[in-house]
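B., you asked whether I could sanity-check this one before it goes into the benchmark set. Here's the sequence:
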Amino acid sequence: MDILNITDDATSSVRPSELSKFSPGLLTFAAVVTGFIMVIGLFGNLLTVVALIKCPKVRNVAAAFIISLCIADFLFCAMVLPFAISGFWTRTWSHGGALCKLVPFLRYGNVGVSLLSIALITLNRYIMIAHHSWYARVYRKHNIALMIVFSWMFSYGMQIPTLLGIWGKFDYDPELGTCSIMPDDLGHSSKTALFVIAFIVPALLIFICYARIFWVVHSSEQRMREHQRSQHSGPGTLNNTEKRSTVKDNRDSKARRNEWRITKMVLAIFLSFLVCYLPITIAKVADSHVHYPIFHIAGYLLLYASACVNPIIYVIMNAQYRAAYAAALCCRLPLPGLTSEKWNERHGYSYSNTRTALSQVSIGESRVDPRASVMSTGPGPK
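And here's what the prediction gave me:
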């Protein structure tokens, strides 16, 4: 089916929907909330991309995936949410048959890219912490590029059959008052399968990675405490070698805390992922015939909110991102009276963070007991 040859049919005309059953105030509220989400999402995601590109101290492996995530969310806000606002405001679809196919294609495609980007960021954290010796081999530049390209091609490629009308079709859904995935002429629909795959697979991957991360970190902290107790119980006077070892341990401990803050930030992104995507997934699977439209509307609002929530998490939970945002807005890194190096130290960019925030840290257990090392078997990648 060639979507460029679509003729104006009933889809292209102004069509009333089940949204008309709701009070105008409720739908106006939904339109205003969606508009607010769109503005915050456009500004926040664009600012994040600019900050990550401008500030070399936060340009690392995770930044590549975060930029991909922000681009997907920016496109979602720019190309999908205006039509959602129109639907809530007018309670109809009046934008033609071609856009009725293109808009849901972009909507689900960008959502897929966002989910896969979050999963890839979590996988990056897992390999960094649980399999540090693999890190330099896995996260080479061409591998990172392939991962990002895969996330985009897979997310949009899964929808090609629906776009061609082979497995469901993109069409107007009168129950929702918008265009979505509808059954094809044979009654087949990809909606349930796509939502289950898009939600369950990333969620399981993220859950498994975080379970392993927390186990490794917990085991590492126990070993470090035992090491510190053994040091305190030794002779009261430290020789030069022991002093240097203690200083290095303190430096690595500070770097580990920075890594753990980044990991907690990604965990917060995952929790927001659950809050934003779980309701719409349940709605699509449990109420595929839309007997409860308000449940779907609430799910869509949460889904839309996912496009603007991640930059907010970055600002709240990570001082380095706050500094990068400030630098992007102020158009320069050094502050008056401070050298660039001192500015970096003041904002958490110590020398130990300059290599990459995701590949710098070795838990240091190799110094405690090389046989018990779970975090690193050699120097971090350059």
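One thing to flag: The longest strand covers residues 169-173. Otherwise nothing jumped out at me.
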